[in-house]
Structure formats: structure tokens, C-alpha cells
Amino acid sequence: MANQISLPEAAKVTSYLAWLKEKSGISGGEKDALAAILLEKDYVWTIEDDKNRAEDGLKWRERYADEVGKPLGKTQQDRIKKTIHGKTSCFEVILSLSEELDAMVNEDEESMTPLFFEILLENLGIFEEKNEEKIRENLEKWLENCDSFTIFPLSKVSQCDKKVSQTGSLWMSMNRWLEENSDENGHFVTKKCHSVTKVSQPSSPYKSRL
């Protein structure tokens, strides 16, 4: 059975969702439904190492409380800071993965986190999706590791490595995905960004903050 951590009710406040939308770059009105579903959908994991990705997601609430500060109000701020026993949302986990990717490949001062957030949502087939039921269905497939449905799809590497993308930890899969989307000089290239960025290659694709 998948593990999960309980989401405090205060994490669903409108101001927190608006803040996450700004950080992720999907602050446009047409993305409101998508953003709400991403925050409402609990992140669950079946691989023990992925618990660390859930804990990464929780850190957004502490950052929110620290950044927003007093205008948030003491009661809400205290509730949001008490996140160690709270459940993580898909929004928070995917945003954390996007920020990790930005840190690994981006040499520029301007953040690429929104770009990676968009790419990961596209990998799940939900960035341009208007049907709310389809969005929920795709998120459920991802969380259940259903039929090779993954946020880090692999296509150019061996069948063995494809299996890593399907059944390995998110961190392991992310490293493999970065390798596949890098050129021979170790530069990361995406269809959304024609300029190249340097990949900070770990000593091993499996070395991680597990």
C-alpha cells in the first residue's frame, strides 16, 4: 500500500495556491483548474526513497510562511509551518523536481524552474489538458506507476534503463532522463529551449540525496 503524509487544511488556503502558481509560472487564469487539482491531489509513493521527494515538497510551505511573513496572519502561518506531519501534494512535489532540474543544468541567473515545471506536466500529458477528469486520471496513473506512465519518460536508451524510468525512484529516473536529453558535450537541450545549458553530471546517475 502506498505511503502518504497528511496535508494540513491550511495548506489549501487561496493565498498559498496563488503563491505556488507564481513560483511555477502557471499563474494564468486558464490554468486555475489545473493548479487547483495539482494541489488537491495527494502525492503518494510506493518506493521508499520517494518519501524524500515528499519531504522536499513540504519545504514549500515553510518557504511560503517565511516569504509571506506577517501579512499571512499568525494563525495561518503557524499552521503552515507545522508541516512535518502533513501530506504532500502533487503540485509541491513536481515543483520541487522542477527546481532540482534547474539547479542541475542552469548556468544563468534567471530561473528555469517554470520551464521545467511545464515540461514535466507535458510529460504527464496534462499541461494543455482542459478535461479535469483526464488530469486526475493521468496523475493517478503516474502515482500508480501504471503501464509505463512516468514523469521522466525514456526512449533512446536500453530496455533496462527504460525499466529504471518506470520502476526506479524519482531521483534515479530524473538522472536517467537528464542523460537522455543531453548532447554529446553534456549540455541539456529541450524542445522548449533551443539554447543549451550545462548539465552538472553526478559521479554516478544513481548517486542521490536519498
Give a description of the structure.
This protein has 210 residues and is mainly alpha-helical. Helix content is 50%, strand content 5%. It contains nine helices and two strands. The protein has a two-stranded antiparallel sheet. The longest helix has 18 residues, at 51-68. The two termini are 21 Å apart.
Structural features:
single chain; 210 residues; mainly alpha; 2 strands; globular; disordered C terminus
Brief synopsis:
The chain is mainly alpha-helical and 210 residues long. The protein has a domain at 9-150. 50% of the residues lie in helices and 5% in strands.
- Give the strand tally: 2
Total of helices = 9
Largest sheet: spatial strand order: 1-2
Low-confidence parts lasting 5 or more residues at pLDDT below 50? 192-210
Structural category is mainly alpha
Largest β-sheet summary: 2 strands, antiparallel
Question: What do the pLDDT scores average to?
Answer: 77
Shape: globular
